[in-house]
Design goal:
Layout lengths: L1 E6 L3 H11 L5 E7 L2 H11 L3 E5 L7 H11 L4 E6 L4 H9 L5 E3 L4 H12 L7 H19 L15 H11 L4 H8 L3 H14 L5 H10 L8
Parallel strand pairs: 1-2, 1-3, 3-4, 4-5
Length: about 220
Amino acid sequence: MIKIIIADDQDLMRDGLATILNLRPEINVIGTAKDGNEAFEKAKELMADLVLMDIRMPNTNGVQGTKLIRKHLPNVQVLMLTTFKDSELIFEALDEGASGYLLKDMATDTIVQAIMTVHSGGMVLPPDLTKQVLKELKRTKELESSKSMDEPPININELTTREIEVLKQLGYGLSNKEIAHKLFITEGTVKNHVSNIINKLQLRDRTQAAIYAVRYGITTFET
Protein backbone atom coordinates (compact mmCIF):
# COMPACT_ATOMS: atom_id res chain seq x y z
CA MET A 1 0.00 0.00 0.00
CA ILE A 2 1.34 3.42 -0.99
CA LYS A 3 1.33 5.97 1.82
CA ILE A 4 0.65 9.47 0.50
CA ILE A 5 0.24 13.04 1.68
CA ILE A 6 -2.08 15.40 -0.21
CA ALA A 7 -1.04 19.06 -0.23
CA ASP A 8 -3.54 21.68 -1.40
CA ASP A 9 -4.64 24.99 0.10
CA GLN A 10 -8.27 24.43 -0.92
CA ASP A 11 -10.12 22.40 1.70
CA LEU A 12 -12.65 20.98 -0.76
CA MET A 13 -10.00 19.75 -3.22
CA ARG A 14 -7.68 18.40 -0.51
CA ASP A 15 -10.27 16.60 1.59
CA GLY A 16 -12.32 15.44 -1.39
CA LEU A 17 -9.32 13.91 -3.10
CA ALA A 18 -8.24 12.26 0.16
CA THR A 19 -11.69 10.69 0.57
CA ILE A 20 -11.78 9.41 -3.02
CA LEU A 21 -8.23 8.02 -3.00
CA ASN A 22 -8.73 6.29 0.35
CA LEU A 23 -11.38 4.16 -1.30
CA ARG A 24 -8.65 2.55 -3.40
CA PRO A 25 -7.04 -0.52 -1.78
CA GLU A 26 -3.58 0.30 -3.16
CA ILE A 27 -3.47 3.76 -1.55
CA ASN A 28 -3.48 5.03 2.03
CA VAL A 29 -3.79 8.80 2.48
CA ILE A 30 -1.96 9.22 5.77
CA GLY A 31 -2.16 13.01 5.99
CA THR A 32 -2.99 16.31 4.33
CA ALA A 33 -1.26 19.69 4.20
CA LYS A 34 -2.13 23.27 3.26
CA ASP A 35 1.26 24.29 1.84
CA GLY A 36 4.63 22.91 0.79
CA ASN A 37 6.31 23.27 4.16
CA GLU A 38 3.51 21.46 5.97
CA ALA A 39 3.67 18.75 3.31
CA PHE A 40 7.39 18.35 4.02
CA GLU A 41 6.83 18.17 7.79
CA LYS A 42 3.98 15.68 7.45
CA ALA A 43 5.96 13.52 5.00
CA LYS A 44 8.87 13.42 7.45
CA GLU A 45 6.71 12.75 10.51
CA LEU A 46 4.45 10.13 8.95
CA MET A 47 7.07 8.47 6.73
CA ALA A 48 5.17 8.99 3.51
CA ASP A 49 6.06 7.31 0.22
CA LEU A 50 4.71 10.06 -2.01
CA VAL A 51 3.30 13.59 -1.86
CA LEU A 52 0.54 14.67 -4.22
CA MET A 53 1.36 18.37 -4.37
CA ASP A 54 -0.63 21.35 -5.61
CA ILE A 55 1.71 23.69 -7.43
CA ARG A 56 0.16 27.01 -6.35
CA MET A 57 -0.23 27.47 -2.59
CA PRO A 58 0.32 30.43 -0.24
CA ASN A 59 3.35 30.67 2.05
CA THR A 60 5.36 27.72 0.65
CA ASN A 61 4.25 26.78 -2.86
CA GLY A 62 4.54 23.39 -4.52
CA VAL A 63 7.89 24.13 -6.14
CA GLN A 64 9.45 25.15 -2.81
CA GLY A 65 7.81 22.18 -1.09
CA THR A 66 9.20 19.82 -3.70
CA LYS A 67 12.68 21.24 -3.20
CA LEU A 68 12.45 20.70 0.57
CA ILE A 69 11.21 17.14 0.23
CA ARG A 70 13.66 16.03 -2.45
CA LYS A 71 16.60 17.58 -0.58
CA HIS A 72 15.84 16.21 2.88
CA LEU A 73 13.64 13.19 2.11
CA PRO A 74 15.12 11.76 -1.11
CA ASN A 75 13.09 8.55 -0.85
CA VAL A 76 9.79 10.46 -0.95
CA GLN A 77 8.44 11.01 -4.47
CA VAL A 78 6.45 14.08 -5.51
CA LEU A 79 3.68 14.24 -8.09
CA MET A 80 2.36 17.69 -9.00
CA LEU A 81 -1.27 18.76 -9.45
CA THR A 82 -1.46 21.64 -11.92
CA THR A 83 -3.37 23.65 -14.49
CA PHE A 84 -2.31 24.69 -18.00
CA LYS A 85 -1.55 28.17 -16.63
CA ASP A 86 1.19 26.76 -14.40
CA SER A 87 3.58 26.05 -17.31
CA GLU A 88 6.59 27.89 -15.89
CA LEU A 89 6.08 26.47 -12.41
CA ILE A 90 5.65 22.95 -13.78
CA PHE A 91 9.16 22.93 -15.21
CA GLU A 92 10.55 24.53 -12.05
CA ALA A 93 8.98 21.75 -9.99
CA LEU A 94 10.39 19.07 -12.31
CA ASP A 95 13.79 20.74 -12.04
CA GLU A 96 13.52 20.45 -8.25
CA GLY A 97 12.87 16.72 -8.46
CA ALA A 98 9.13 16.18 -8.98
CA SER A 99 8.48 12.96 -10.88
CA GLY A 100 5.65 14.29 -13.00
CA TYR A 101 2.43 16.24 -13.12
CA LEU A 102 -1.30 15.91 -13.73
CA LEU A 103 -4.24 18.25 -14.16
CA LYS A 104 -6.43 18.55 -11.08
CA ASP A 105 -9.57 17.57 -12.95
CA MET A 106 -8.22 14.29 -14.33
CA ALA A 107 -10.11 11.06 -13.62
CA THR A 108 -9.43 9.25 -10.35
CA ASP A 109 -8.16 6.17 -12.23
CA THR A 110 -5.62 8.36 -14.05
CA ILE A 111 -4.39 9.86 -10.77
CA VAL A 112 -4.13 6.42 -9.16
CA GLN A 113 -2.19 5.01 -12.11
CA ALA A 114 0.14 8.03 -12.01
CA ILE A 115 0.76 7.53 -8.29
CA MET A 116 1.62 3.87 -8.89
CA THR A 117 3.91 4.76 -11.81
CA VAL A 118 5.84 7.34 -9.78
CA HIS A 119 6.02 5.07 -6.72
CA SER A 120 7.62 2.36 -8.87
CA GLY A 121 10.29 4.80 -10.04
CA GLY A 122 8.70 6.03 -13.25
CA MET A 123 7.77 9.47 -14.52
CA VAL A 124 4.44 10.97 -15.48
CA LEU A 125 4.71 13.38 -18.41
CA PRO A 126 1.41 12.96 -20.28
CA PRO A 127 2.17 13.64 -23.98
CA ASP A 128 -1.04 15.51 -24.80
CA LEU A 129 -0.80 17.58 -21.63
CA THR A 130 2.91 18.26 -22.14
CA LYS A 131 2.20 19.49 -25.67
CA GLN A 132 -0.30 22.01 -24.32
CA VAL A 133 2.03 23.06 -21.51
CA LEU A 134 4.86 23.63 -24.00
CA LYS A 135 2.60 25.75 -26.18
CA GLU A 136 1.67 27.91 -23.21
CA LEU A 137 5.29 28.13 -22.03
CA LYS A 138 6.51 29.08 -25.50
CA ARG A 139 3.76 31.69 -25.86
CA THR A 140 4.68 33.19 -22.48
CA LYS A 141 8.38 33.30 -23.36
CA GLU A 142 7.63 34.96 -26.69
CA LEU A 143 5.52 37.61 -25.00
CA GLU A 144 8.27 38.25 -22.47
CA SER A 145 11.29 38.29 -24.75
CA SER A 146 10.20 37.73 -28.36
CA LYS A 147 12.22 34.49 -28.35
CA SER A 148 11.15 30.89 -28.89
CA MET A 149 12.32 27.92 -26.84
CA ASP A 150 15.94 28.00 -25.69
CA GLU A 151 18.70 26.37 -27.74
CA PRO A 152 20.19 23.31 -26.04
CA PRO A 153 23.55 23.76 -24.26
CA ILE A 154 26.64 22.86 -26.29
CA ASN A 155 27.20 19.65 -24.31
CA ILE A 156 24.40 18.07 -26.35
CA ASN A 157 27.12 17.54 -28.98
CA GLU A 158 28.77 14.98 -26.69
CA LEU A 159 25.87 12.56 -27.14
CA THR A 160 25.94 9.82 -29.75
CA THR A 161 23.11 9.41 -32.25
CA ARG A 162 21.70 6.51 -30.25
CA GLU A 163 21.91 8.46 -27.00
CA ILE A 164 19.93 11.29 -28.63
CA GLU A 165 17.29 8.74 -29.65
CA VAL A 166 17.08 7.46 -26.07
CA LEU A 167 16.97 11.01 -24.70
CA LYS A 168 14.05 11.77 -27.01
CA GLN A 169 12.10 8.81 -25.65
CA LEU A 170 12.86 9.86 -22.08
CA GLY A 171 11.09 13.11 -22.90
CA TYR A 172 7.95 11.11 -23.65
CA GLY A 173 8.18 9.61 -20.16
CA LEU A 174 8.92 6.08 -21.39
CA SER A 175 10.43 3.43 -19.13
CA ASN A 176 13.63 1.57 -19.99
CA LYS A 177 11.54 -1.42 -21.06
CA GLU A 178 9.37 0.71 -23.35
CA ILE A 179 12.42 2.43 -24.87
CA ALA A 180 14.09 -0.94 -25.44
CA HIS A 181 11.00 -2.22 -27.26
CA LYS A 182 10.69 0.93 -29.38
CA LEU A 183 14.37 1.06 -30.38
CA PHE A 184 14.87 -2.73 -30.67
CA ILE A 185 17.64 -2.87 -28.08
CA THR A 186 17.96 -4.54 -24.66
CA GLU A 187 16.90 -2.95 -21.37
CA GLY A 188 20.51 -3.19 -20.19
CA THR A 189 21.67 -1.20 -23.19
CA VAL A 190 19.01 1.44 -22.52
CA LYS A 191 20.12 1.64 -18.89
CA ASN A 192 23.71 2.24 -20.02
CA HIS A 193 22.62 4.91 -22.49
CA VAL A 194 20.56 6.69 -19.81
CA SER A 195 23.53 6.66 -17.45
CA ASN A 196 25.78 8.09 -20.18
CA ILE A 197 23.23 10.80 -21.00
CA ILE A 198 22.95 11.87 -17.37
CA ASN A 199 26.74 11.98 -16.97
CA LYS A 200 27.47 13.79 -20.24
CA LEU A 201 24.76 16.41 -19.74
CA GLN A 202 25.63 16.76 -16.04
CA LEU A 203 22.07 16.08 -14.92
CA ARG A 204 20.81 14.72 -11.61
CA ASP A 205 18.59 11.89 -12.83
CA ARG A 206 16.37 10.62 -15.64
CA THR A 207 13.62 13.08 -14.74
CA GLN A 208 16.00 15.97 -15.40
CA ALA A 209 17.00 14.24 -18.63
CA ALA A 210 13.34 14.11 -19.65
CA ILE A 211 12.90 17.81 -18.82
CA TYR A 212 16.03 18.61 -20.86
CA ALA A 213 14.63 16.69 -23.84
CA VAL A 214 11.30 18.49 -23.71
CA ARG A 215 12.63 21.95 -22.90
CA TYR A 216 15.20 21.99 -25.68
CA GLY A 217 13.06 20.40 -28.37
CA ILE A 218 14.78 17.00 -28.58
CA THR A 219 11.36 15.54 -27.78
CA THR A 220 8.70 17.06 -29.99
CA PHE A 221 4.93 16.79 -29.89
CA GLU A 222 2.91 16.91 -33.08
CA THR A 223 0.25 19.59 -33.33
